[in-house]
Structure formats: C-alpha cells, structure tokens
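Q: I'm building a small set of examples for a reading group on sequence design. Run inverse folding on the following structure and report the sequence directly after it, with nothing in between.
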C-alpha cells in the first residue's frame, strides 16, 4: 500500500508540473478542422471539356438553323391580267387538269387607249357636222361626234395609240387654221386574275402561251393572305 500511495503521489506531482509549465489551452486545444479538398481537374481535361461543350452548342445551333431554313412555306401565285373572261377560264381549266385549284377574281382598271385629236367649240351637233364636211374636202374624213359631261358636240378626228400619228394630224389641222386640241383617253375595263397556292420548294406553273405573253399576261408570286 505504501508503494501505491507513493506512486500516486509522484503522478500528482508530475501532473501539477505539466499544468504549471504549459497553459491549459495548449494541452486541451481542439485540433483545427481540415478543409475538404476540391476535386482536382487536369488542365488538358478542362480544355477538352470546354471544346466538347462548344461543339455541342455549335451542333445544336446548326440543327436549329437547318430546321428554320427548311420550313415549307406556302406561296400564292397570281396569273394575269386577262382582259377576256373566257380566256381566263380556259387557262383555269389547264390548271384543273393537273389538279391545281384556281380562284378567279376581277377588278376594274383604266386602260390607256391613246391620244384623241379633236375640235371643240360647237354649239350644236349640226355645227359639228358642218365642220366635218369641210374637213372631208381636205381629205380628213374619219370623225365621230362626242357628247360627254365636260365635252358637248366635240368633233373627234380619231384616237391614236402612237403619239407621232396624233401629232401629225394635229399639225396638219393647225396649218388649216383649226383650233385643234389633244388629250390622252382611257376607258374602264374589267380585268381578271387567277390565283392558286404553291410551295416555296417548287416554282409556280405558268400554263399560258405566246399569245398571252404578248398581251402582257404573267405570273406574280406573293404571300398568302
């Protein structure tokens, strides 16, 4: 027992010396927590990853562009103008034969006829006829008496599609001391158009011949409304 108490006394003395020589915080200080290490990425792996992402983004963008450009859009075609409704219906029948449905539409427009050469200032029809008889003695025999809202008993000497022909007659009448006048003439005409739908992937079919082309018939593409 004496030995045990002696050893216990030595242990207490030793513990006391340690407390006296070292502060309490150093003896029982908590060890600092070690921060979690970030996962390391090699430089070449990072570059490869960026290249892959760029390629995927570019690939998806190209796919999107392709899909936008390949959209099949509908195009409406107008064929005309036709001055004759019968002719427009004949062309419509050609489209029906190849299973293309057309719609016929009409509209009013002013058609240029030419330049009218005339003499005005007559107070009556008989006075206009008298002037025409005098002109016949000079070899000018073609005439018509016009009565319109702004022209009464006008002696028309013809409507000329070529300006030079109208000027030639006008100059001749001036040499004969007639108060000649000229003006462009128009008339209201009904024109016809054929409309049908097509695709932007194929050209519209123009089923007309040279006679129609000579008359100014053509085909105009446009948006469907």
């Amino acid at each position: 027992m004496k030995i045990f108490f002696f050893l216990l006394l030595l242990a207490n003395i030793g513990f006391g010396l340690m407390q006296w020589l070292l502060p309490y915080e150093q003896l029982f200080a908590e060890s600092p927590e070690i921060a979690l290490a970030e996962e390391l990425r090699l430089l070449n792996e990072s570059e490869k990853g960026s290249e892959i992402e760029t390629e995927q983004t570019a690939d998806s963008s190209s796919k999107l562009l392709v899909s936008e450009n390949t959209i099949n859009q509908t195009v409406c075609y107008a064929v005309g103008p036709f001055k004759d409704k019968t002719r427009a219906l004949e062309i419509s029948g050609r489209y029906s034969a190849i299973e293309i449905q057309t719609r016929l539409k009409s509209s009013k427009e002013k058609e240029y006829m030419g330049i009218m050469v005339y003499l005005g200032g007559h107070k009556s029809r008989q006075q206009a006829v008298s002037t025409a008889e005098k002109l016949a003695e000079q070899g000018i025999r073609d005439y018509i008496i016009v009565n319109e809202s702004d022209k009464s008993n006008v002696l028309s000497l013809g409507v000329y599609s070529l300006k030079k022909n109208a000027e030639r007659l006008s100059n001749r009448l001036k040499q004969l001391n007639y108060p000649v006048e000229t003006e462009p003439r128009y008339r209201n005409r009904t024109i016809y158009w054929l409309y049908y739908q097509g695709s932007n992937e194929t050209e519209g079919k123009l089923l007309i011949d040279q006679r129609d082309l000579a008359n100014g018939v053509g085909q105009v593409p446009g948006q469907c409304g």
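The helical segments are 2-21, 24-28, 43-69, 85-97, 125-137, 163-175, 210-214.
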